[in-house]
Amino acid sequence: MKLLKLTLHNFRKFKDLELEFPEGIIGLVGSNGSGKSTVIEAIGWAIYGNRAARTSRDQVKRMGAKRSDECWVKLAFELEGTQYEVFRILTARSSDARVKVNGVIAASSAQGATAFLEKKLRMDYDSFYTSIVARQQELNTLSDKSPAERKKSMLRMLGVDVLDEAIRRVREDRRHKEKILEHMEKNLKDIDELENKKREGREAMEQYSHTREQLMDELESARRALRTLEEELSIEKERAKTFKALDEKRKLLTERQHHTKTLMESKVHEIEELEKNVQELEELQPRVEEYETLSRRKEEMERAKERYYEKRNLQEQMESLTKEIASMVQDISALEKQLEGEEEDTKMLQRIVAQIEETESLIKQREKAADALEAERRFIAEKKEELEQKAARIRELGAESDCPTCGRPLGEKYEEIIADFENSMCQLEKEMREKEREIERIEKDVAMLKNRRGDLLEEKKGAEARILSYRLTRERAKQFLERKREKESSLETVKKRLAAIGELEFDEEELRRVDARVKDLLPVKNHALILENEVKKIPALRREVREIEKELGTISGQLHECIEKIDRLDFDVNRYEELEKTYAETRDIFHGKKEEIIRIEGKMEHLEKEMGMLEREIEEQHRQRNEIRTLRKNIANLEALAGDRETGLLNSFKNYLISKIGPMLSYHASHFFSTFTNGKYREIEIGENYDIFIYDGGERFELERFSGGEKDLANLSLRLAISQLIAQKADALLQFIALDEIFGSQDRERKKNVLNALAELKNQFRQILLITHIEEIKDSMEYLITVYEDENGISHARIE
User: Fold this and answer.
1) What is the DSSP string of 469-510?
2) Least crowded by CB within 10 Å, which of 62, 177, 274, 282?
3) Mean pLDDT calculated for residue range 721-727
4) What angle is formed at CA 454 by the lines to CA 452 and CA 455, rounded to 5 degrees?
């Protein structure tokens, strides 16, 4: 893994940072708290997410960034010749990540990206920070773990744990095959029993075949008898069909003959009755003529009556409309007086609206100014709180303690540092109080403006109510004018109609006399109309009687001809029914034999399928016996690979590898420790539980016997040995290591020795990142990345 580029946005103290990593020994230098360790933390956070952060999730985002601002890290690196780009983002509500491989998205989501990268790098979070990255004050991370945890971490980092997975899978495969073998042995069937069933099936098949041949002979005999009966029955069916048609025709003609005779008798009787009505109609004619004359007179008088009453109604309407129009003129005049003063109230409302808008604009300006001052006050309060926390931390440590960041004694600088913190906090307190007084003054102005706005709104409400009243009054006046015009139009129409009617005379008494006489004559008129309609039917009825007589003669001739044909056919109905019965019985026998043959054939087909299934079952039993023999061989082979209780070839190989790890780590760690101590201690031994022992004068001692600086060097030697071993194992997979503040407890000579040892590692690691605040180290670096803060507390970095 070779680092290419790191981009930060609102991460920790960095607002925006873009770094391209060269090859060689790279020093990250800067004052304490400037953000040097943040660069390494960002690399781990991009790969492993929030687990790699030094603090809780909500403190990762830069202090001073807006709530809506995003916090993200983009890391580009090269692995086995492939370009990777990791992008991890933190928002107010969630986190997300994605991984691109050669520009194509290969993983997405925060958890998905981490899982993908762990698989590609072949190490989890603990392995990464135990072997590749040594964070500030964490050199002893591995030695502080319990023996079991140290052993587990070491095996995982060096890839030996994959053998445990292989052993587990071999054992699972063996147990799975044993279950299959047990199931198959339980389900084996007796092959001899299957062969006996097959033989019994063949005997039954021969019996069914013999029975089928007998039924086929009987079926053919029935088919011949049925064919003879079909020929005879076909001839008789034609004669029966002719007889049936003639008999139905005879019945139909007889019925028509009877119906026609009845109809003719009814028509003759109806003519006789109608001829009696002719004389009565002649007697009623004078009274019918009187009815018609009086009816015409009545119609003329009723039209005169309608015009008379219409004229009277129109005169009443004209009088009513005239009164209504006069009343509306008075109402319109009163409404026009109410509209006086509308123009003055409208101008007043416009002035009030303008004053309200001006007041609201002033309120917004003052509130915006107050918000800005409040944001400044909060920012000052946060800076003051940060200074208080730092000062409290230093007071807690005391003047005789070491710096919590670099490890150097505070000494005489203690009082000066405390005084600087107190002066800064006092100045910030004054600035906060000034901001609060300005905010209070603005809030008073805003309150006065809001009171003024309330008064104006009340005045506006009253003016709007008066304007609304004017509008309603104007609308009522408009309605009165429209109604007045409508009434005037109606009055003009009434006058025109009266002029059209003019003068007229009407005698209502005469109309009543005429109407009474017409009512008396109406029954006579109606009876005469009925008689007249009846008499008109007589000519048509006489024509119908002549047509019926003609039709009756035709029906009699057809009936006689039909009877003669039936007599010549000589058809015997009883003989035909007996022949049909014999045919039906023979057909039932034929179909019965046929169905019995189908049943036999169905049994034969079912038996044939069963015999086929027996054949396949016998073959399957032979196949399963062969498969059982193969399974037993496979289970024996898997047992040889990984048996229970640490037996098998894979367990032996794993134990062999574990036995080699300790000596190899001891060899590499001893080389580094000897270099670091300038030959004072030449040998380190890594025990069975991966704890550290140091040889002094040929005698082995536990790590706790030695000084803090020597313990740090021993732990650093082990960390470098692990990194070297992993790099050798992974070939070109891991090409960088990062060491954070590893010189804090070392003297000048040992610092030089550490740098010389790291220079030797350049052959295996193309990038070695050293984080330090020690000035004399800078000259030993091939590249320098300087990290610094600006006046706003935002961190920046530049490559030199």
Assistant:
1) HHHHHHHHHHHHHHHHHHHHHHHHHHHHHHHHH------HHH
2) 282
3) 72
4) 65
Distances (CA, A) of 792 to 418, 788, 789: 21, 11, 8
Residue 30 has phi, psi (to 5 degrees) of: 160, 170
Chain length of the chain = 800
Domain that holds residue 467: 340-475
Sorted by sequence, the CB contacts under 8 Å of residue 773 that are 6+ apart come out as: 29, 30, 31, 32, 36, 405, 406, 741
Task: Looking at the structure, tell me whether residues 556 and 447 fall in a common domain.
Answer: no
342 exposed, middle or buried (CB, 10 Å; 0-12, 13-18, 19+)?
middle
Which one-letter amino acid corresponds to residue 43?
A: I
In whole angstroms, what is the distance from residue 605 CA to residue 599 CA? 10
**What mean pLDDT value characterizes the chain?**
82
Residue 143 tokens, joined: 């030695």
In terms of domains, do 636 and 576 share one?
yes
Pairing mode of beta strands 795-799, 783-789: antiparallel
Residues 358 and 428 reside in one and the same domain? yes
Q: Is the per-residue pLDDT at 114 higher than 80?
A: yes
Mean pLDDT of 488-513: 81
Q: How far apart are CA 408 and CA 411, in angstroms?
A: 9
Segment 350-362 shows an average pLDDT of: 89
- The per-residue pLDDT for 422 is 85
Helix, strand, coil % in the chain, rounded to nearest 5: 70, 10, 15
For 237-279, what is each residue's pLDDT tens digit?
887 888 888 888 888 988 888 888 888 888 888 888 877 777 7
pLDDT for residue 485 is more than 60: yes
| Order of all β-strands in the sheet with 104-108 | 104-108, 95-101, 82-90, 71-79, 2-11, 14-20, 795-799, 783-789, 24-29, 767-772, 736-740, 133-134
Radius of gyration of the chain (CA): 61
Residue 409 domain flag: yes
Burial class (CB in 10 A: 0-12, 13-18, 19+), 396: exposed
In 92-240 the beta strands, taken as DSSP E runs, fall at 95-101, 104-108, 133-134
Cα angle 786, 789, 791 (rounded to 5 degrees) comes to 145
Instruction: At 23, list the tokens.
Output: 């090859």
Spatial contact of 8 and 14, defined as CB atoms under 8 Å apart: yes
Q: Tell me the pairing of strands 71-79 and 104-108.
A: unpaired
Shared domain for 246 and 199, answered yes or no, is: yes
Q: 644, 677, 696 — which closes off a domain?
A: 644
Cα 83-84-86 angle, rounded to 5 deg: 155
Nearest CA-CA partner of 1 in 110, 95, 120, 90: 120
If asked whether residues 256 and 358 sit together in one domain, one would say no
Is residue 795 within 8 A of residue 13, CB to CB? The reply is yes
For residues 679 and 171, give the distance between their C-alpha atoms in angstroms, rounded to a whole number: 49
CA distance 633 to 433: 88
- In percent, the amount of the chain with pLDDT more than 70 equals 91
Determine the Cα–Cα distance for residues 52 and 387; give it in Å rounded to an integer. Answer: 26
Give kind and range of the element (H or E) at residue 6.
Answer: strand 2-11
Residue 327 pLDDT > 70: yes
Q: Does residue 140 belong to any structural domain of this protein?
A: no
Say whether both 322 and 296 belong to one domain: yes
Task: State how far the Cα of 144 lies from the Cα of 715, in Å rounded to an integer.
Answer: 10
Q: Is residue 612 in some structural domain?
A: yes
Rounded Cα distance between 617 and 190, Å, is 11
pLDDT at 8: 94
Q: Are residues 435 and 555 in the same domain?
A: no
Q: What is the pLDDT of residue 142?
A: 62
| pLDDT, tens digit (0-9, with 9 covering 90-100), for 657-668 | 677 777 887 877
Q: What is the domain count for the chain?
A: 3
User: Which of 644, 679, 706 represents a domain boundary (last residue)?
Assistant: 644
Reading phi first (left if > 0) and then psi (alpha if -120 to 50, else beta), residue 636 is in alpha
Band of pLDDT at residue 403, cut at 50, 70 and 90: low
